[in-house]
Backbone:
């Protein structure tokens, strides 16, 4: 009779890494064992014979896979194609979960109607195309959408929603007087402050209907004030030679952000909706307003988001008007303000706001006219390496990077299986070499976007390998294998 042999109990073993988590102030030297797509053992000295596949981590930092809570797949390109190319860029940046915003209206699928018909089309377009796990935030644009919120939560697993505060009176790229056509809303409805109030009430009703999920049901707001922007855009555009990112910044001034934050916060107070996310804050004025509102309404659980683009680039250092984005890149003084507040612990998470806009769509006629260009750019591929690089220069500890990029957004958005390297969690991680200098070149990105506002920026840290639920999707800096990403029905049921 043949002698029985022990089979390896681990699917994958990653040897010789320094594990970074949000709850440990120092990286811990360990090996990482993975079974069925989850972390099973995290300890030193795991025998290679215990695993079917072994990867040498080469002493690198093992960060939790980034939960990028703000992306825009399909805004300018075919949604399925975007899911594939931009998820490859995600892998380059250590992003293992992409939360992307979606709405009815122009761009995206270029159609209106009910989400019960619209959202299944979104899911079909992305299915089997993404290299990373993904979920969606949805924007209630019409009265019909308000009534759909409970079903979106319970049946479709969408627990986070969005308001674009300036859409009712200003265009996506600049001034516009035809917002109903752009938003594809019924002619007798308006996308205005009253609608925002009713969105908040509908979301609060859903929280009360599903008390077991209430902490994971939240509302995010893009805070800019249409009336302020409309007036300032007219002023700036009337100035001879006013172009470039500095002119666009002045056309959407920081106090437009601050005022919108105050309005949104009071509406949250009035509707008793406590789970509010203030998106992509860009300026000292915006942060000051957000902090003041938190003090004024302590019952509201505000979260404050910034993007890696706004932390790295300013109106002078960004590479050309490809850096046009909403809200705009700001002067260096605002960048420094963001970093002060981030280092003080006032920022909840850092995102990419990734919106791939290819050259032929991005730039208008004339090409150097910032007001003729479209808004948004990619950047998920620079999220983790950019934050580790610049954060290290400024004294940001690694465990804070882990909190800002993984743990905090995972907790807020109902991704209870994500966000840390610990037994039982999804085996999402990125290996980072913190001492591997490189220069940003758009040509090296897996994104379909041919340019980058960060072109020429110098980073010290590089993501070398990325794993999604134990599947290696980036190896030695190159995307490998087939798409492994799954749609994440939220809130997740837990481990």
Residues:
């Amino acid at each position: 009779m043949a002698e029985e042999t022990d089979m390896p109990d681990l699917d994958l073993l990653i040897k010789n890494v320094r594990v970074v988590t949000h709850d440990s102030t120092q990286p811990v030297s360990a090996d990482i064992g993975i079974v069925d797509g989850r972390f099973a053992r995290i300890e030193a000295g795991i025998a290679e014979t215990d695993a079917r596949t072994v990867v040498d981590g080469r002493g690198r930092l093992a960060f939790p896979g980034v939960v990028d809570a703000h992306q825009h797949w399909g805004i300018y390109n075919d949604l399925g194609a975007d899911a594939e190319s931009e998820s490859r860029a995600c892998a380059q940046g250590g992003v293992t979960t992409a939360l992307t915003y979606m709405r009815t209206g122009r761009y995206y699928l270029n159609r209106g109607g009910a989400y019960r018909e619209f959202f299944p089309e979104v899911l079909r377009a992305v299915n089997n195309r993404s290299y990373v796990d993904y979920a969606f935030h949805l924007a209630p644009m019409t009265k019909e959408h308000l009534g759909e919120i409970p079903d979106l939560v319970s049946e479709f697993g969408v627990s986070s929603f969005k308001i674009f505060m300036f859409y009712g009176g200003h265009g996506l790229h600049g001034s516009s007087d035809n917002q109903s056509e752009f938003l594809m809303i019924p002619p007798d409805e308006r996308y205005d402050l009253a609608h925002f109030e009713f969105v908040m009430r509908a979301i609060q009703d859903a929280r009360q209907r599903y008390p077991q999920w209430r902490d994971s049901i939240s509302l995010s707001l893009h805070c800019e004030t249409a009336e302020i922007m409309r007036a300032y855009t007219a002023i700036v555009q009337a100035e001879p030679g006013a172009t470039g990112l500095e002119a666009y910044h002045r056309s959407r001034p920081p106090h437009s952000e601050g005022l919108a934050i105050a309005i949104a916060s009071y509406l949250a107070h009035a509707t008793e909706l406590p789970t509010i996310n203030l998106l992509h804050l860009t300026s000292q004025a915006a942060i000051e307003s957000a902090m003041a509102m938190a003090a004024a309404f302590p019952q509201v659980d505000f979260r404050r988001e910034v993007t890696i683009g706004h932390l790295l680039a300013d109106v002078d250092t960004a590479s050309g008007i490809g850096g046009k984005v909403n809200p705009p890149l700001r002067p260096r003084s605002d960048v420094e303000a963001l970093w002060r507040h981030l280092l003080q612990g006032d920022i909840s998470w850092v995102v990419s706001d990734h919106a791939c806009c290819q050259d032929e769509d991005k730039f208008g006629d004339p090409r150097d006219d910032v007001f003729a260009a479209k808004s948004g750019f990619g950047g998920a591929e620079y999220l983790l390496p950019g934050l580790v690089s610049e954060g290290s220069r400024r004294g940001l500890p690694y465990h804070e990077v882990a909190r800002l990029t993984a743990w905090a957004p995972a907790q807020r958005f109902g991704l209870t299986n994500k966000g840390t390297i610990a037994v039982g969690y999804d085996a999402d991680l990125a290996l980072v070499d913190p001492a591997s200098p490189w220069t940003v070149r758009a040509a090296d990105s897996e994104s379909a976007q041919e340019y980058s506002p960060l072109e020429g920026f110098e980073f010290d840290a590089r993501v070398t390998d990325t794993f999604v639920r134990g599947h290696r999707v980036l190896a030695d800096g190159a995307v490998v294998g087939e798409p492994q990403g799954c749609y994440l029905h939220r809130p997740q049921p837990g481990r």
In short: Confidence is low (pLDDT under 50) at residues 1-5.
